[in-house]
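Quick one, tokens below:
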């Protein structure tokens, strides 16, 4: 089955409706902070319907935006036509990126590593396509810091979360996975979104470079 076999039609339609509300609630500022200093050639993995697109600066010369879900990919292509950044939206999977080795200056993942089937494989692919000195830029929700909330996350991940939310897992230790994949994380900002302490509120924003 090719990448086009990744279909989450109900979740895709749900996400296109709530994504804007999430940005208005404060996530847009984190997207802008994550992307504002990028330059050169960029790969965005799991671009969804393109909420990052308007935040790419003029120093970015190309963006290859990879999205396997057909409904989201169509919406992303429509959005790409309305922004200044030179964006090409393509079909593809995080663990088999349609990009050559050492071909981009940055790989962007936002709310993606929670849902990929295999974090290690996806991160190895990100490392493969990065040029020497390139960076992985990430904005992800992650494992809770307390045992009680981690138990709730494990329960959600074992039951309804992945089935109803496009494969999303709320309790992955994404920072540890990034380090295990051969990256050295830089400064990381931890924040709650939404502000209440729920199983899906714990987020990180930062970047990492291949070790």
């Amino acid at each position: 089955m090719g990448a086009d076999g990744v279909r989450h039609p109900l979740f895709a339609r749900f996400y296109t409706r709530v994504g804007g509300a999430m940005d208005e609630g404060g996530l847009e500022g984190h997207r802008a902070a994550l992307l504002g200093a990028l330059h050169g050639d960029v790969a965005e993995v799991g671009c969804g319907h393109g909420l990052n697109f308007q935040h790419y600066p003029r120093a970015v010369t190309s963006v290859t935006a990879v999205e396997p879900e057909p409904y989201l990919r169509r919406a992303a292509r429509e959005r790409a036509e309305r922004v200044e950044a030179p964006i090409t939206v393509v079909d593809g999977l995080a663990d088999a990126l349609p990009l050559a080795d050492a071909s981009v200056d940055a790989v962007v993942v936002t709310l993606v590593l929670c849902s990929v089937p295999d974090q290690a494989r996806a991160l190895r692919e990100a490392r493969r396509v990065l040029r020497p000195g390139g960076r992985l830029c990430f904005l992800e929700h992650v494992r809770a810091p307390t045992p009680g909330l981690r138990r709730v996350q494990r329960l959600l991940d074992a039951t309804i979360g992945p089935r109803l939310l496009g494969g999303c897992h709320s309790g992955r230790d994404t920072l540890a996975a990034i380090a295990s994949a051969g990256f050295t994380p830089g400064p990381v900002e931890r924040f709650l979104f939404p502000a209440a302490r729920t199983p899906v509120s714990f987020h990180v924003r930062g970047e990492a470079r291949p070790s």
